[in-house]
Amino acid sequence: MLPRCTRSVASATLAARRLVRDNQRITALGRARDLAGARRVFDAMPQRDVVSWNALLTALWRGGRDLPAACRLFDAMPSRDLISWNSILAGCVAHGDLGAASAYFARAPRRNVATWNAMLAGLVRLGSMDDAEALFREMPERNVVSYTTMVDGLARCGEVARAREVFDAMPERNSVSFAAMISGYVENGMFVEARTLFERMPEKNVMACTAMITGYCKEGDVDSARRLFDGIRVKDVISWNAMIAGYVHNGHGEEAMRLHVVMLKEGLRPDHATLIAVLTACSALTLLRQGRSAHAVAIKAMLESSISLCNALMTMYSKCGNVHESELVFMNVKSQDIVSWNTIIAAYAQHGKYQRVIALFHEMEAHGLIPNDITFLSVLSACGHVGQVDVSLKLFDLMSSKYAISPGAEHYACIVDILSRAGQLEKACNYIKEMPFEAEKNVWGALLRACQTRSSVQLGELAAKMLVQLDSENSGPYVMLSNIYAAAGMWFEVNQVRGQMKEKGVKKQPGYSWTEIGNEVHMFVGGDACHPEMSKIISELRKISFHMQMVSDEGHLMAELAQECG
Length: 566
Description:
two-stranded antiparallel sheet, 73% helix, mainly alpha
């Protein structure tokens, strides 16, 4: 039989091991967001220490996203250490409650550099940079995290020069510091400076490479971005997202979709940013089946509550011709913001559903949301589809009289287009003259298209002249003006326009279209006969043309017979 003291030591050892094990379980369950499980382990513990309380405290605000419960637990703690104070402070910052964070910071009996950094991060996160700089100067001790937080915050606020001053003043820098400064340059359109600093980096990490991928894509250099992306040994989901989104924003939707497939094959789970980029590509390429697959992935990953993702889904379904599915997504959005309303209004406007657009506009107002310039642009577009001239002019006046919104170039373009389509070319021209800024290409383009339809030579010449001044390399104005002259029988002027095009080296831009068959997108360009199935395509087109001619001839024959019988 073991002596009593030996049994006591063994029992204490077992209890200490159980305490450590239970603390580790609470931490693990909290990270897995299993708050109920973490709470059961905590409640069943025969003894707890400050580590147990800290583990549950962090699990509540981080895993459970329940800051009030975390605050109540903090107040109930029998004892607190520095980690307890830093945890509740970090929780308040993470949840955007700067007032509570400031109160805990003031009450903390002892502070270390992590305490100061948590408060600094809160001020930076909420954009209070003056307060952040004051706190930074007050800090008794700073580390690389303190400096990096300030660099990131200043750059995000557009104070790039000040951010660089702080960066250069750092006693030591790590890869995160470099990445923050490089990202700041990229986000503020200073790509040359970003590339120079990137080349100076002793060790290039995935964060800095991702920032540079974004920078290259913003510059339109997707090839350099892809080479950098392929050179990253261990890619995270953010780097994949940057490359996929870069392809999408540069009009390479097919490459974006291919890269997304590779990402899935490598076992990475897409997040909401991935799916938004994929849905944007599906919208541009009208890939309904792939868009629905992305929707299914969002549901499975429980991401469908993201408002930005829902807005992307609405746009995708609308662009793919399923506006009713757009509204189903809209109805399932729990907290519809102005962007959601604008998205569904734009969806119906694109489909020419004037009555539904007007109904949604009034419904949005009834919900207490104030329409913005984007809302009015969609409503005016819907008016244009059905030729509602009077309604569109009233809405245009309502923008400034009721909502104090100054109409932009696109609003004027809509009004000019609506008036031009209605044949009110002089009135459309007067609106252009009354614009408080120089008319852009879309405004003059709307007038020129109407002049071509209405064979208005004088105004057509004016619109074409202005368009050529704005974009001398675009063939559109020349072609439309030539068509206006041709319709009026002004062949000398037609030859003059063609001569100007030849003299300036302007070539007519070929049209293009695409269609999805199976899993492949087929692109067709005017004048290009290199498609491998071109002979079959021409054969089918001839058959279709023949059948159309037969139907047309049959219609004419039936009309002649009806006249003879009459």
